[in-house]
Write a structure and sequence with these properties.
Distance between the termini: 22 Å
Structural class: alpha/beta
Strand content: 5-15%
Number of helices: 24
Number of strands: 18
Largest sheet: 7 strands, mixed
Shape: elongated
């Protein structure tokens, strides 16, 4: 994910419906189920005061929450870089928090078992997001009567009370929004397990929830226990392959063993008040303290802490869904399959704007799905969102090369010097390399053809037909935040093809030199772009087993390039918003490249190339140099593979194309490649990128 985060849902980057419970016997049944396996548990603790103590040996404790075994977690005042410590003031404040929790637990409820509560925390920055997420359930008194809201500033506390919530509690000090791993970030994220610890000590069962979750229905806590009665802690899965789930015939939406499901996410957790869970929470805090200012997330420490304590854990139903697959694969099952889902967590995104934008789209899609009659004939798979999300038809070589061989066949058949099957086209196919000059008869043949089909409209028309482009698939600029630019003509797209290539070297798909990113940033600023949408999808040409690691690797590289672009665009008097890195559907990606105010690609790509040339104003599509006849896109970046004659040809091609081409060593200086380098591979370009990105 990209650079800035706001705070409270902090565990990202980093990733049959339940029956409604009404009156009487069902509620009693729930309570019986909820208590099963917990006969040894006493009633909620209303007497025991939580006290800060200094022991004779100099250690400090917060009794009975944090005893001498974990005294390293207790200090007289303040905190340390980990944010995991408890001060005297916080220790004493736990009494107030516990009192509010006990009051909530006593409220009658037809949808929450006895001695169970919900708890969340928020600040003024995230308040609107929290209320958006609760919109479908905040009018359910059986839920809100059992909801504790920890308010991290006075404004939030006032809003909480004004909204009619009965159990609002103020923290001991104000903590506003904090960027990822900066300022109060760590203290804020550790408040969730601390809050749980206080409630567990009072023998309450608590479901904690982050502020960036859209709930479609009140979580059925008794149902959670029913699915895994032996578990002491129930957590949200970090990864679930919803695409595979819904390819099954009559899938169990709660759980399917054969579908990928793994990883601990602390956005939604049901904590049972057992000795093991209490110890596991303390172990997590201790691990957090020992981790200091490292980059390990609270949820990772909590997972490890629970393992240390031997806690029996289980994942929640798959219907407590999250955004991993939508964000990293562009596969958004929530748009078509969420009728029975319980919630949707905006994971794998950073920043209020990006989270609110995805939840807004999810809300719109879910509302349409849930409003359909049960016997409606129209299938959700035929909805516009579903149609836009479908992969484009391609055989062997991906959509871009397939489009050239099929969609552009008539024009290419008639083109002088066309490349035919050169470039490794599969048997029976043509023109898969037509997007680069390498195999054309001459540079002039190449540039003449692409100028002709872009100016006469043939390319644009064929692309619309082949990709089934529809206005409903256009990039949606709405974010729910008015300050973020929504005029599409002031928004620029940046596409980074990073999956099989450029991590693995091929001569056709080299990553552009870092100076190219500066060139892009300067052009975007010159053209008045106020918002940048970074697009990255990693599934092309990769096995599923390595996609997550490749996602992280590609995001790291993309962020270096985006930081260079940002450096050129943002000045003292210019404010530009950079969206989080996202994976859009193929159709929406093509339309963003074609229709937004400007677009740029960081790696040569047969997929995005036609969309760039199909723009109304091709000059606002920026691409790296694709080489010349006989010299590949990678080789023109190496001094050892070029000479003065090739450089002149490169300049001629760049000048002749109907788009903006970055010409390395022919109008645009780039750093020398290391002596002896024979390939523009990752060992050559990555150090150059890192060095250039670190420049002031």
């Amino acid at each position: 994910s990209s650079s800035s985060s706001s705070s409270l849902d902090v565990e990202e980057i980093e990733k049959g419906s339940a029956e409604d419970v009404s009156e009487g016997s069902k509620d009693s049944e729930k309570n019986v189920i909820a208590r099963s396996g917990e006969d040894s548990r006493s009633s909620p603790n209303e007497e025991g005061e939580i006290v800060f103590k200094s022991l004779e040996n100099g250690k400090k404790i917060c009794s009975p929450l944090i005893d001498e075994e974990f005294s390293d977690l207790v200090v007289e005042e303040g905190n340390d870089e980990s944010g995991a410590l408890t001060s005297k003031a916080e220790c004493e404040w736990f009494n107030q928090l516990t009192k509010v929790g006990l009051e909530a637990s006593k409220m009658p409820s037809t949808c929450v078992p006895d001695d169970y509560i919900f708890a969340t925390l928020t600040n003024d920055h995230m308040w609107d997001m929290s209320m958006f997420g609760l919109q479908h359930i905040k009018d359910e008194n059986c839920f809100t009567d059992r909801l504790v809201i920890l308010c991290l500033d006075d404004v939030t506390f006032s809003k909480c009370e004004a909204a009619g919530f009965k159990h609002c509690v103020k923290y001991i000090k104000s903590m506003a929004s904090s960027n990822y791993m900066q300022d109060d970030y760590r203290q804020i994220v550790w408040l969730k397990p601390k809050m749980a610890l206080a409630f567990l000590n009072a023998k309450l069962t608590v479901f904690t929830l982050d502020s960036d979750i859209l709930f479609f229905q009140v979580p059925d806590l008794a149902k959670i226990k029913e699915l895994h009665p032996e578990a002491e802690l129930h957590y949200q899965w970090e990864y679930v392959d919803y695409e595979a789930l819904y390819e099954m015939e009559n899938p169990n939406e709660d759980f399917e063993e054969s579908v990928r499901h793994e990883g601990y996410n602390s956005g939604q957790v049901l904590w049972m008040p057992t000795a093991n869970v209490i110890k596991g929470t303390l172990r997590a805090l201790l691990r957090g303290k020992e981790g200091g200012s490292g980059d390990k997330l609270e949820q990772a420490h909590t997972q490890d802490g629970m393992s240390d304590a031997g806690v029996n854990t289980a994942g929640l139903s798959f219907r407590y869904a999250a955004n991993w697959q939508c964000s990293t694969r562009g596969v958004c099952s929530v748009y078509t399959k969420s009728q029975n889902w319980i919630s949707y967590h905006a994971t794998w995104l950073q920043g209020l704007e990006s989270k609110r934008a995805i939840l807004t789209k999810v809300e719109e899609a879910w509302s349409k799905l849930s409003s359909k009659p049960a016997n409606a004939e129209d299938d959700a798979n035929d909805s516009p969102l579903a149609q836009c999300a479908k992969s484009l038809k391609a055989e062997h070589t991906g959509f871009g090369n397939t489009f050239l061989g099929d969609g552009m066949k008539t024009e290419l058949d008639a083109a002088r010097g066309n490349p035919g099957r050169e470039g490794g086209c599969p048997t029976g196919r043509l023109y898969c390399s037509a997007w680069e000059p390498l195999h054309w008869g001459s540079d002039e043949d190449y540039t003449s053809f692409w100028n002709t089909v872009s100016s006469n409209g043939a390319l644009k028309e064929h692309l619309i037909v082949a990709a089934e482009l529809d206005e409903q698939c256009a990039f949606d600029p709405k974010t729910g935040i008015e300050s973020i630019e929504q005029d599409v003509q002031k928004i620029a797209a940046v596409h980074f093809r990073c999956s099989d290539v450029p991590i693995h070297y091929t001569q056709n798909y080299p990553v552009a030199p870092p100076e190219y990113s500066s060139f892009v940033g300067k052009k975007f600023r010159e053209w008045g772009m106020k918002r940048v949408v970074p697009i990255l999808c990693v599934e092309h040409g990769l096995e599923e087993s390595i996609r997550d690691d490749r996602q992280k690797q590609c995001e790291e590289l993309f962020n270096l390039q985006l930081n260079i672009i940002k450096r050129e665009m943002i000045t003292n008097d210019e404010n530009v918003h950079f969206d989080d890195i996202t994976c859009l559907s193929e159709k929406t990606t093509l339309m963003a490249i074609r229709d937004l105010g400007a677009s740029a690609i960081l790696v040569p790509s047969s997929f995005t190339f036609p969309a760039g040339l199909a723009r109304e104003d091709g000059s606002k599509f920026i691409m790296p140099h694709f080489g010349v006849q006989g010299v590949s896109p990678a080789d023109v970046l190496l001094q050892s593979k070029i000479n003065d004659e090739i450089i002149l040809r490169m300049q001629s091609v760049a000048d002749a194309m109907p788009v903006t081409v970055f010409c390395p060593r022919c109008g645009n200086d780039i750093a020398d490649t290391p002596e002896g380098a024979t390939q523009w591979n990752i060992d050559v370009w990555k150090p150059l990128l890192e060095k250039y990105a670190s420049k002031n």
